Predict the structure.
Amino acid sequence: MQAEKEDEILRRALREGRLTPGEAERLRIEAGAFRRLVERLGPSVTLLLVARRLDPQTVLPYLDDPEAVALVRRLQDSALLETDAGPPSSPTRTLGEAESSEAPPVGPGVSQITLPGLDRYVILQKLAQGGTATVFKALDPRLNRPVALKVLWGDTGGQVRRILREAQAQAKVEHENVCRVYEVGEAGGLHYIAMQYIEGFTLDQVQKQLTLEQKVRLVKRVAEALHAAHRQGLIHRDIKPSNIMVELTEDGDWHPYVLDFGLAREIHPSEATLTHVIVGTPQYMAPEQARGEVERLDRRTDVYSLGATLYELLVGRPPFEGSTPVEVLMRVLSEEPTPPRKLDPSIPVDLETIVLKCLEKDPQRRYESARALADDLGRYLDGEPILARPAGWTYRLWKRARKHKALLTAVGAVLFVVTVLLALNVRTQLRARRQAALAQRLGQTVQAIEGLMQMAFLLPPHDIRREKALVMERIREIEGYLRDRDPIFRGPAAYALGRAYLALQDYDRARTLLQTAWDAEYREPAVAYALGLTLSHLYRRELEALDRIGDPDLREARRRELAERYRTPILQFLRQGRSVELAGPAYVEALVAFYERRYDEALTRVRAAAAQNPWPYEERLLEAEVLRDRGVEAAERGRYDEAQDLFRRAESVYRGVLEIARSFPSAHGALCRLAVHRLDLAVRAGQDPEPPWEAGRTLCQRALQVDPEDAYTYARLAELHWRWALYEYQHGQDPSATLEAARRAAETVIRLRPDQAIGYEVLGDVYEIQGSYMMAWGMDAGPAFEKALENYQKALQISPDAAHYNMVGLMYGNLLQYELERGRAPADRLRRAAEAFQMALRLNPSLYNAYSNLGRAYRFWGESELRRGRDPTTSLAQALDAYRRSLQINPNHIVAYFGLGKTHQLVAEYRMATCASPEEALQASVEAFREALRRDARYIFALYELGQTFGLQARHQMTRGQDPWPTARQALEFLDRAVEVNPREASAYAVRSRVYQTLALDALRRGEDPAEFLNRAVADGQAARQANPNLADAVLALAEAWLSRAAWDLHRGRPPMAALAEARAVLQAGLGRHAHDFRLHRALGQAALLEGRWHARTGRAPDAAWDEALRHLRDALERNPNDAETHRFMAETYRRIAEYRTAHGQDSTEARRQAAAAVEKVQTLCPDPSGALSRPWTMDHRP
């Protein structure tokens, strides 16, 4: 439509009374804004924005035109977006209107604009809706006047109380330029505020239409209004253009109204100050307000904000800008505003002088009151000389010197030398004064840093790295003092840096610097308190690391060790700093109670501390951690329902923390950590662990979105993954992809914090689990174990404590086992493992699992000696001694009971091999495994090893002519349970196959058909080999099952060749990995012996087969020269050769001599007066 037609229609509406002059002016301004939006964004996007179908934040990333960006940002406050506000005649903004673009759930009856219980007011239309309130234009029939009626919905985070307090504060001020509050009340369950209805705009919406004189006059009137508020004891604390409305009067003048006293603070001696809490809008915030020094805020704080508002009216932007609120605040604190005339030379000198006086960093140099500012603005408007004067050259020089502190220090040093020459006493006083001045100056900077980080935490979820980078810039400035030659600077500078790193939650650097300050004799109470608080955070982090220790008893021992290291210094420092109000005494007492595990007291005290703080996110975080730790203890004691409830309560409190401080990394990280506990609890309780696993990944990633460089969250993410990988492995699933994700997370920890042990420790955990599952599944675990050892050694170099020595020893033990299984006997691995465990025990004599791990290493070595035909008695005795020492310290150590049972089992096996009585060792093995299973009925290793012990006992009973069935049934019971726990546990199938072979032999001995047992033996052997084709015991179990089938066929006169072919195929495949294992060669000899016998029986030449048997048996004896069973098969082979040769008229003398020599060797190794045990037990021969 052409402009003249538009003007004609508007004039007609004015004549007909459909528009007021103010409304017509509003439409003109908004139409201009709409046209500019269409030009820059296009009509479609603009219509979507105006219709609230598109979030303005969605558009901003696509704009590179600064003016378009500014327009879209102003849309968030603009009436153009209030599509529910009725016709264009009502685009108003009133007291406290929420600026959120997110519409809340609509309250009762809003869509019909009827409010039950508020019959006193006639609702005319809805003006605006925000996060907690809806503003209506209403009529008060009793007084026949329009009102702005704000109706409050809900009370999220106490906002209703805040808004009511705002209204009550504003109602105290009677001034024509303050929006009046008529009534505050409650009706029908709804809180409401009736206010003056203003038809107008916010100041930032009309500033481009104002003349210079209009701008100055408006600010003068606002200053007068603020003076009236100050006289009532109120400080506004959030003066800015969007909190000032202007209404066009009938005579064409603009009338201002001050809005939003929501941050107003009553000045009262009894008021509890909120130290270091930043509230307000950064661009208009005074330096003392930016530092969070609430107790220093007074009328001059509002003078600064009003000066910043005038600055923006003059030059079009605030004095300080930045991409984040924290960046703006840092500039407010450290930079001087650009003089307005440098940006616009047409600005009068007097106005520049007034503005810069308002913006002085030092409140003492600002106008004494808002009245004084209004008076000077009045002088300017009247053409009279103003009282403010530009800063002189000496003051400007002083400010430059403060900015360039190094220069100031150098000048001070020269003056100091001169002074020393005059008087030593003066020198001492000056040094003390300089140190005090530096401490004060640095203290102000540190308070600003703490306040700024707190603001970063309070902002919506965002990446806080930019704020941290800004803080690091200030830290680098302070570091210059630490390098200064004058030692008086060292203490205050180190303290200031320590406090700064404490604000950044970098507790390691904070501790180092605060200790430096303390060692430099700078021992103020504040230093003591900061040291105590830093140590408490480090203590909490160390306690968190206990989560990765699976054994509850070992975890408790480590907890005691940490308490001895941290608790006393923490309490000493906190007591020395008790006079410093960095935190309330209730919070300190709650910390102490928490560390002493007095959980109920800790909860009581921390809740009391939270009640004293309107932003209690630190206190609420501690409350959640108390609940979480109680949940962990309940889970360890098997009280799973109680643990679930405590974890739910902890999560609720953590989420409450994030309602206050939405970008608080500690709370996000704590939720990630809680997910690890919930995953562990689900596994313990036999519940579905997938929900906490999936939730945990989401929570950990959310924490990393807030702080992508938080090494400890990456450590939690790595732990979450390796715990899930462990679950996958133990339940027959492939964990390789999960372990790879864990590895990446752990390597990120090392990249971020290479100076900390945690990254290497977690990466070592990942590789240890990878090696364990690879070994269990028959893959090459050596490289994984080597990497685990390498990382544990790096952790040990950083933190040479007992726990890390134990980890290193454990890895040497794993590598010992790995190499022994490959036929190598690395005595160096055993020595290094023993040295590491002994060092761990030297540092912590109560570290019982170091004893059990030492026993494990000796047990591996003893088993190796047994397989190589050496006497393992000494090694196994050392293993038993180590396990017993472990149980003396901790009688409930399940791993020690398992090791004790396995070692006794090996002793029994050795005694059986030497024809000594194994009964005592077998009984001791059974008792030890049963003790382990009393502590965990699903402990799979104890289940199948107890089955193995019973299997050995049944075999021994059968060879002695006793009934093996009762014992074999017990073996099968435990082996069945093991397979139920883990259907992919190859060892359980292998042991069960051997038990069925024993029962097959016994059935044959009793004249019964052994076919069923033989079939089961073969099936279990196949299951074992399928689960782990590279496990030597699986290979042997299946091969021996086929050999038993072949011998049974031979016994029945049937061809054994098919079964022999199966056995040979399995054994030949196994030799590729286990050529060192004499048992495979012995089994191949047995197969060839059976083949030769079949050939001899069927008239074919057996010589080649028997030569093959002798060759394989000699290979077995090269690897184990003292195996009686191999010598039995050697004797049996020569006996068969001698019999065959005699029957065919050939010389059998040598064969008989070799057979006799073999029998004699058997008798030497396994003395048996009856001679019954000089021949092997097979399905075709029973001694």
